[in-house]
Every structure is written in structure tokens, then in C-alpha cells.
Write a structure and sequence with these properties.
This protein has one domain. Helices cover about 85% and strands about 0% of the residues. It has 2 helices and no strands. The radius of gyration is 32 Å and the shape is rod-shaped. The longest helix is centred in the last third of the chain and has 39 residues. It is an all-alpha fold.
């Protein structure tokens, strides 16, 4: 009886492990503190570049508007 029980326990453990591997986790992937800091720095740089580009576009639009006003 003990031998049967032990074999069944081993098989149940294997089934349990294989089923556990099939389950997906809703937990997000871990991002280290250094990576988070790096991502924030990159985001800040991108925002600065976009802000500078927007200011530059606004400046060119203002210049173009002034030129069209002066022509009339």
C-alpha cells in the first residue's frame, strides 16, 4: 500500500508542476531601480527634445506670419 501511495504522490506532484508551468502570471516583469532611472532619464530627454522642436516650429510659424504681414 505504501508503494502505491508513494507512486501516486509522485505522479500527482508531476501533474501539479506541469499545470503550474502552464498558468500565466498577471504580475508585471521586474524592472530594476537602475533601469527605471535610465527610462526616466530617456523620457525626460525625449520630452525636452519635443519641447524644443515645438518651440522651433512655433518660432518659424511666427516668422512666417510676420513676413506675410510685412508683405501686405
Amino acid at each position: 500500500m505504501n508503494r502505491k501511495k508513494k507512486v501516486n504522490e509522485i505522479l500527482k506532484k508531476r501533474l501539479k508542476k506541469s499545470n503550474a508551468k502552464l498558468q500565466t502570471s498577471n504580475k508585471p516583469r521586474y524592472i530594476s531601480k537602475a533601469e527605471r532611472a535610465k527610462m526616466e532619464l530617456e523620457a525626460a530627454q525625449q520630452a525636452a527634445e519635443q519641447g524644443a522642436a515645438a518651440k522651433e516650429e512655433q518660432a518659424t510659424a511666427d516668422v512666417a506670419a510676420e513676413e506675410s504681414d510685412s508683405k501686405e
